[in-house]
UniProtKB/TrEMBL annotation:
InterPro entries: AB_hydrolase_fold (IPR029058), Pept_S9A_N (IPR023302), Peptidase_S9_cat (IPR001375), Peptidase_S9A (IPR002470), Serine_Peptidase_S9A (IPR051543). It comes from Usitatibacter palustris. GO terms for molecular function: aminopeptidase activity; serine-type endopeptidase activity. Keywords: Aminopeptidase, Hydrolase, Protease, Serine protease, Signal. One of its GO terms (biological process) is proteolysis. It comes from the Bacteria. This is Dipeptidyl aminopeptidase BI. The keyword Chaperone does not apply. Belongs to the peptidase S9A family. Its EC number is 3.4.14.-. The keyword NAD does not apply. It is an enzyme of class 3 (hydrolase). Residues 32-428 form the Peptidase S9A N-terminal domain.
Length: 705
């Protein structure tokens, strides 16, 4: 008998019957059955029959009825946990300082901040002139915007260079379709602007011209740059991106001397710049796009500073004269390094800051422009996350950064670059007597079948750490080169104080170990992401941290694809699965170029219109690989107005799974009917959703007490 089987066998006695299973009335909770309406699709000789393709008909009352029936069933299943869910909600809420302010930052003589008021769902954005003792000016009260609305999300907020006007975008559906509005900060009057589908924007130096990017109405690709003069009907089209795998974005350099327009695909960029004082001028191309070449531009004095991967996947830093910024004029400052990822380069008047990822750990490197000397900002822990905060001013002697870990609450610092000293401005309040010293975090490493070392970060309460397997929540993502750095959440204490261990698997496909880590978990190497996660779970079981009947896994969006894939691979390895807005219907989505984001995603997953990619993607698509058998308990969460992963993917997944699962484990589909990809927009609503999720997890582990 293998060590893995021995540990799992020894843990069987743990599996307490969940509270919902003990008290649920089977007659009151009969799962709905979605009608089968077969749609046959054949490609490259592969015949797929999709019985639930019709669930994508959002305007069909039968579809909404099915989603509501699933919600009603889920409510019935979870009804025995109502009291416990409320207890968890009060715990989470009780650790939050409900009336609080953010750390103010200075910009052009004003101090900007946001505050939250007990009982109100949304922040209030404010500023004070000269000092924090000056009278408060309310720039934007999101609670006022949200009156009478079931969902409200403010996307962008940009104050004009002279501080007299505000441009902001807002979405009231959750579909991430934002409308640009303006406001006069002197009179308080709303501007006439109501420009739809805006994804990025930037003011020109004249305080009356706004450049903004328009989103395509169907594919949601950011594809057109416009120039708009305040108070004037219409806008001028400046640039249109024709290549369907590229999006464009507009912003400005920290020096505020240049506007920057970037065209970006998943593996290629092209940048143009325009002097911000010349809004009707001609945009200057930095370097023509070349497949696989990514570069990003900052500005200082007479030079552009460019982070580029032209000589190595982990990027190098070069500079070039503003007058001749092309690649043939690039002068290297920092070489590309095999084991160190150059994540960002930020320019200030007297110094610059690099964010580096060295062996998976983030480091902040400060360099003095005059002397060229550099040093790193020290950190106190081995498992942590650190990154730049809001640094609005170019001429400054301080650098604001944020530090947090799995045990240390988010902390804001101002760092004196010359004195090499830091000042703690604020640490996230955690009410209720939270003591970081009572908790411990560790770095754990598993070894994949190909020999790759897969890092994990774990946290637990010291006094509850046992020599026997413990309940665990293992989180994973592993896509788009996004890193899952160890982050603090006060809500997590509700798990840790009940004896759970929380773990993050830093699997390939993410950016946790640099750009090559991403490359090894995308396209035709995507299955590394799934096998890495299984390897991590097996390692945690083999080392006695947990056991299969005590292990819950969680992931969302592309992490939901991960959940579906690993559950198909090893349904016996997990007690329960939480999958949120999951990308599970890979083949149907990636074969439909009319859907938002599909074409751009070819560079992440592959183009299934080619036979090799089709067969590879078909082999792991969670929806297409469901089969008859026993599955873990599962909570599937989605939103009706999600524009990133359409609601029908999880709905179809659950409908099909209900016809195939041979177990009696819970399968709950919860659809928020007035939200998008990020779930509920109000902070109290979001906490209630989190309490729902935690109640499910804790109940599956026999900890709903």
């Amino acid at each position: 008998m293998s060590p893995l089987i021995r540990v799992a066998g020894a843990a069987l006695a743990f599996a307490a019957l969940s509270l919902m299973a003990q008290t649920m009335d089977p007659k009151a909770a009969t799962p709905p059955t979605a009608a089968k309406k077969p749609k046959v699709m054949t490609k490259f000789g592969d015949r797929r029959v999709d019985d639930y393709f019709w669930l994508r008909e959002k305007t069909n009352p039968e579809v909404i009825d099915y989603l509501k029936a699933e919600n009603a069933y889920g409510a019935a299943v979870m009804k025995p946990l109502e009291g416990f869910r409320e207890k968890v909600y009060k715990e989470i809420l009780g650790r939050i300082k409900e009336t609080d302010e953010s750390v103010p930052y200075r910009n052009k003589g004003y101090w900007y901040y946001q505050r939250e008021v007990e009982g109100k769902q949304y922040p209030i954005h404010c500023r004070r002139k000269g000092s924090m003792e000056a009278p408060e000016e309310i720039i934007l009260d999101v609670n006022a915007l949200a009156e009478g609305k079931k969902f409200t999300s403010v996307g962008l907020m940009e104050v004009s260079p002279d501080g007299t006007k505000l441009a902001y975008t807002v979405d009231f559906t959750g579909f991430r379709q934002y409308t640009l509005n303006t406001k006069d900060l002197v009179t308080g009057a709303q501007g006439s602007e109501k420009i739809e589908r805006v994804t990025s924007m930037s003011w020109a130096a004249d305080n009356k011209t706004i450049f903004y990017v328009e989103e395509h109405p169907e594919t949601k690709r950011s594809y057109r740059l416009h120039r708009h003069l305040l108070g004037v009907d219409g806008s001028d089209l400046v640039f249109e991106e024709k290549d369907e795998v590229f999006d464009i974005e507009v912003g400005e350099t920290r020096s505020e001397k240049f506007l920057v327009m970037s065209a970006s695909a998943k593996d290629t960029t092209e940048v143009r710049v325009l002097p911000s004082g010349d809004p009707r001028g001609e945009w200057q191309l930095i370097e023509k796009r070349k497949s696989g070449h990514e570069y990003f531009v900052s500005h200082h004095d007479d030079d552009f500073y460019i982070r580029t991967n032209d000589k190595g996947r982990n990027y190098r830093l070069v500079k070039a004269p503003v007058a001749t910024p092309g690649q043939k004029h690039w002068k290297q400052l920092i070489a590309a390094r095999k084991l160190v990822m150059l994540e960002s380069a930020d320019m200030f008047k007297d110094f610059w800051v690099l964010t580096e990822r060295d062996n998976g750990l983030l480091k902040l490197r400060i360099t003095d422009f005059k002397t060229g000397n550099h040093h790193y900002i020290d950190v106190p822990e081995q498992v942590y996350s650190t990154y730049g905060g809001t640094n609005a001013e170019y001429e400054t002697g301080t650098f604001r950064f944020i530090y947090e870990s799995l045990v240390t609450p988010k902390s804001w610092y101002d760092y004196d670059v010359t004195a090499r000293s830091r000042k703690l401005l604020k640490q996230q309040p955690v009410l209720g007597g939270y003591d970081p010293s009572l908790y411990a975090s560790e770095a754990v490493v598993a070894t994949a079948k190909d020999g790759t070392k897969i890092p994990m970060s774990i946290v637990y309460k010291k006094s509850l750490r046992k020599s026997t397997p413990q309940p665990m929540l293992l989180y994973g993502y592993g896509s788009y080169g996004i890193s899952m750095d160890p982050w603090f959440r006060s809500s997590r204490v509700s798990l840790l104080d009940r004896g759970m261990i929380f773990a993050i698997a830093h699997i390939r496909g993410g950016g946790d170990r640099g750009r090559t880590w991403y490359d090894d978990g995308k396209l035709m190497k995507k299955k590394n992401t799934f096998s890495d996660f299984v390897t991590c779970a097996e390692h945690l079981v083999a080392k006695g941290y947990t056991a299969p009947d005590r292990l819950v896994i969680q992931g969302g969006s592309a992490g939901g694809l991960l959940m579906g894939a690993v559950t198909n691979l090893r349904p016996d390895l997990f007690k329960a699965v939480v999958t949120q807005v999951p990308f599970v219907d890979v083949m149907n989505t990636m074969l439909d170029a009319s859907l938002p984001l599909t074409v751009q995603e070819y560079l992440e997953w592959g183009n299934p219109n080619t036979e090799k990619a089709y067969k590879y993607m078909r082999s792991y698509s969670p929806y297409d690989n469901l089969k008859k058998g026993a599955y873990p308990a599962m909570l599937v969460e989605t939103s009706l107005n999600d524009s990133q992963v359409m609601y029908w993917e999880p709905a179809k997944y659950v409908a099909k799974l209900r016809t195939l699962k041979t177990d009696n484990n819970a399968l709950v589909l919860k659809t928020i009917l007035e939200a998008g990809h990020g779930g509920a927009s109000g902070r109290y609503d979001a906490l209630k959703e989190l309490a729902f999720t935690y109640a499910f997890v804790l109940d599956q582990l026999g900890l709903a007490q």
